[in-house]
Fold these 3 entries.
Entry 1:
Amino acid sequence: MSQSSAHALPSYLDAGHLGPWGIYLQQVDRVTPYLGPLARWVETLKRPKRALIVDVPIEMDNGTIAHFEGYRVQHNTSRGPGKGGVRFHQDVTLSEVMALAAWMSVKNAAVNLPYGGAKGGIRVDPRKLSQSEIERMTRRYTSEIGVIIGPAKDIPAPDVNTNAQIMAWMMDTYSMNEGATATGVVTGKPISLGGSLGRIEATGRGVFVVACEAARDLNIDVAGAKVIVQGFGNVGGTAARLFHEAGAVVVAAQDHTGTVYNPAGLDVHKLLAHVSNKGGVGGFSGGEALANADFWGLETDFLIPAALENQITSENAGKVRAKVVVEGANGPTTPEADDILHDNGVYVVPDVLANAGGVTVSYFEWVQDFSSFFWSEDEINHRLERLMREAYAAIAQMSREQKVSLRTAAFIVACTRILQARQVRGLYP
Ligand SMILES: NC(=O)c1ccc[n+]([C@@H]2O[C@H](COP(=O)([O-])OP(=O)(O)OC[C@H]3O[C@@H](n4cnc5c(N)ncnc54)[C@H](O)[C@@H]3O)[C@@H](O)[C@H]2O)c1
C-alpha cells in the first residue's frame, strides 16, 4: 500500500510508474514466479544498489558557466564490478539511467560475464557543445563519479553520443586523479590506449551468431534465407554484411533516410559504401524505394531491428511476417508487441542476449588491459562466438523447460544467477 500523498512523486518501487524503470519492475514481477526459493531475495533486483547524482559545472567557450545533471547508477554488483555505458542525451533522467543499469545487470548475467550492472549519463544535447566544451564536461563528470568507478569497482563504456575519444578523456582524467595510468577503468577505448580489436563489430557479429543458432533450432538454412534490417549503422550494417557473406539474401534495409528494397537481394558491400558516402540508405540505386510502413510486413526469415527503441509496437506487430526477430537494438519491441509476436508464433531473440556481443568484447578489453597482453582479432572473434553460442544454448534450454519465451527465459537465467550470488554472499554486516 502506498503511503504517499496524491501530490508526491511516486516511489521508485512503484511498478505503475510508467517509463523505462516501471517496465523493468514489471519484467521482474513477471519472472518472480520462476525463481523458486530465490524469490525471497527478489527485492534486491528492484532497488539499485547505489545511485549518484552529480553537478557538472563547466566554463563555456563564451565565458559563461553552465551546469549539467550527471548520474552514475550501480544497479547490482553481486557478481562483479558494475559495467555499463555513459549516455550524453538531452532526455537523460535518473529513472532512465536506473532502468538502463538494471538491464545491464540482466544482460551481463544472461551471457555469464563476471559483472554487475551500471549505467551513467549527462542530461545534455552534445550537438550544442563544442569539442572543447564536451571535453571539459566529460572530465568534470569523470572526476565527480571518480569516487565510485574504477577497474575493480565499475567500468564505464560508450553509449548513445559517446565514443572512443570520450573514453580516452575519461581514462586520462581518472588516471590523473589516481596518479597512475589505469587503462581498465573504461572500455571502448582507442586501440592505441588499450582498446580491443574486434570491439567495433562485436555487437553485429553477436547478432549474427545468435541468429545462426536460432536458425539451427528452427531448421532454417542461413544460406539463401531472407533478411530485412532496420538501422544500417554499426550494429545493423555489420550484421547485414555477415549474413550476406554467409549466403543469405538481404532484401530490405531501412534507416532514418528511408527504406530500400530488392527482392533479388541488395548488394550489401555496395550499400555499406553508399551509406558511408551519403549518410544513409536513401537513394541507393541497387534497389527500389519502399514506404517505411511497408517494411514491417515484408515476408522474410529474419527481421533485425538495429536502430532505436519502441519500433515494433501494437500498431505494426500484427503485420510482421518474419519467422525470427533478432533484437540488435535495445528495447525495440514494446511489451504489448512482444505478446502479439508470441501469439503469432514469431521467434524473438531478445536484446539482452542478441546484442550482448558488445559488452562481451568490452569484457575481453578489460581482461587484456589487466594482463597488458593483447589478443589477435581472430582469437577475439572465436571467443566471442563461443560465449554467445553458450549463452544462447542455456537460455533456449530454459525456454524449452519452462515453456516460456526466450525473453522470459533470459530473465530467469540472469535473475537466478544474480540472486544465487546474493544468497551465497549473504548480507553484510
Ligand atoms: N554499438 C554497440 O556496441 C551496441 C551494443 C548494444 C546495443 N546497441 C544498440 O543498437 C542500436 C543501434 O546502435 P548502433 O551502434 O548501430 O548505432 P548507429 O548510430 O551506428 O546506427 C543507428 C542506425 O539507426 C538508424 N536510425 C536512426 N533513426 C531511425 C529511424 N527513425 N528509423 C529508422 N532507422 C533509424 C540510423 O540511420 C542508423 O542506421 C541502438 O539501439 C543501440 O543501443 C548498440
Entry 2:
Amino acid sequence: MGRSPRWRPRSLLPRPLRLRRISLWAIALGVIGCLVLGAIDPSRSEEAPPPIDFSQFPAPQVHPMPEALRRWRDQPKARSPGALVNPQDDHYFDQMVASPLGHLVWSRWPVTIALVPPTVAPDRWLTAVQQAIADWSPYLPLELLPVGSAEPADIMIQWGNPTLRTEAGMSRAANARTTYEFYWDRRDLQKGDRPRLAHRMLIQLRADRSPPQLLGTARHELGHALGLWGHSRDRRDVMYAAAVAHPAHLSIRDLNTLVKVYEQPTRLGWAIAPADATSRAPALLD
Ligand SMILES: [Zn+2]
C-alpha cells in the first residue's frame, strides 16, 4: 500500500494551480530586531531561504496607496531656506530591504493588531504599545482588536524577552524582535475568487525598559511591521537602528520612506494568477 499524501490539494483551485505548502512556508521566515547597542543587519535572516520558483506566485504590482498616506504625501511641505533637497526626496529608502516576495506592503485595510501583554504589571507596556499604534494611525488605517479576540490579527505584538544572533553567531538579548511569515489568505473569498498571497507579522517586545524606551522601541518595531524593513542611519528618525536615551518621534524622513515603500510593486496582497496565465507553471503538484 502506498503512503497517503501528507497534504491533499484544496479543491478550490484547478489542478494546475495547486501549490505545495512547502513552497510557501519554506520561505516564510524573516527576522529583524534591535539590540540594546548596535543592530542586526536586516538583510541577514536566521535561516537562508531556499531558491524560489516565482512562476508559482502572483506577479509584482503596485497597490493603491491608502488615502491617509496619499494625503500626507501630497500636502505641501515647507522647505527651509537654503535647503539642498526637496523634502519629498529626503528619505532612506535605499536602506530598505525587500522580502523574497517584494516589499512588505499591506493592502487590506484596516491592518488588524492584537496584543498579548505581560501577565504581571501590564499597564506600562500596554500604554507604550497603544501610544505607538496611535502615532502611526494617522498615516495607515490600523485597528486594535479586543484582547482575546478570536480573529487572527495581521500584526501580533507580544510581550517577551527575545534574543537575536549577532553577526559573530552569538546570542544576545534584544529589546525587541519582529518576524514575518507568508500564507495564502482565503478570508472573504467569493465563488471563483483565488486566494491572495499575504503576510503576517509578530513583534516580541520586552517590558523591563523605561517608559520612553518602551515607547521608542514599540514605535520602531511597528514601523518594521508596517513595511519599513531596514534602518535609518540618522538618530532623529524612528527607524534608527540603536536604542537611544530619547527616542525620536516620527520624522518626515520616516514618512517619506514609508511612502516610497508603498509605491513599490510587490507580490503580496495579490491573488494567484488565473489558470491561463500560469499554464507554463511547472511542477506545482504535490
Ligand atoms: Zn529595527
Entry 3:
Amino acid sequence: MQCSRNRKFVSIERELHDRKFAVELLNDVVIRPPCVTDGASVNALIARCPPLDRNSLYCNLLQCAHFSATSALAEQEGKVIGFASGYRLPDEPETLFIWQVAVDRIARGRALGKHLILDILSRPVCAGVSMLKTTVTQSNSASQAMFDKTAAVLDAPHRRTLLFDRDRHLGGSHSSEFLISIGPFQIPGRDKPDRRR
Ligand SMILES: CC(C)(COP(=O)(O)OP(=O)(O)OC[C@H]1O[C@@H](n2cnc3c(N)ncnc32)[C@H](O)[C@@H]1OP(=O)(O)O)[C@@H](O)C(=O)NCCC(=O)NCCS
C-alpha cells in the first residue's frame, strides 16, 4: 500500500462542526492510515508508551499492513507521535474495536488520541459503524478520560463491564481489563443507524 503523506489533518470534527462541538486543532500534525513501512516506528512508539503491552515488530507490521484502514497514525515533521490500532469485529461489523492508542509524551494533553479515533470513524471504511468498543484498566485514568471525551463528541452513551479478569483470564500477571462500549451513535451527515443487525 502507498503512504498518502499529503493527507491533511482531517477528522470527524469537520463533520461535527455544525453541531458546535469543540475543535482542538493540532498544528502541523498529519493523521493518516499507517503503511507497512511505519511498522518499526510504531513499534518504537508503543515501547515508549507504558503501560501499553509491548508488541512484537511483526504484530505492528500486521497492524500497519492488514488493519491500516481502521488504524491511524499521527506524524509531526516526519516523526511518528501517535498511533491507534483498530478493526471491525468479525462477528459484529457495526462495531469498531480500538486495540491500542499511543500518544508520545510530548504530544499528550491535546486530545490527539481522541482525534486519531475520530479520524478512523470518519472514513468510508467505517460506514455502518455505530458502536465503539475498547478495553481499559482501572488505573489508566488518561485512557478513560480520552474515551469519555470521545463518547461526548459522539453524543453517545457509554458503559463499562469486566471483560478479562486478572485471575481468570490474565494469569494473575496483568490488571483486569474492562470493556468500554460507546454507542449507538450516528456519524452526522453520513450514516443512519442500521437497526437490522
Ligand atoms: C491515553 C493517551 C493515549 C491519551 O492521549 P492524549 O492525546 O494525551 O489524550 P487527552 O489529551 O484527551 O488527555 C487524556 C487525559 O490524559 C491526561 N493528561 C493530560 N495531559 C497530559 C500530559 N501532558 N501528560 C500525561 N497525561 C496527560 C489527563 O488525565 C487527560 O484527561 P483530562 O483532559 O480529562 O484531564 C496517552 O496518555 C497515552 O499514550 N498513554 C500511554 C498509553 C496508554 O495508556 N494508552 C491507552 C490504552 S489503549
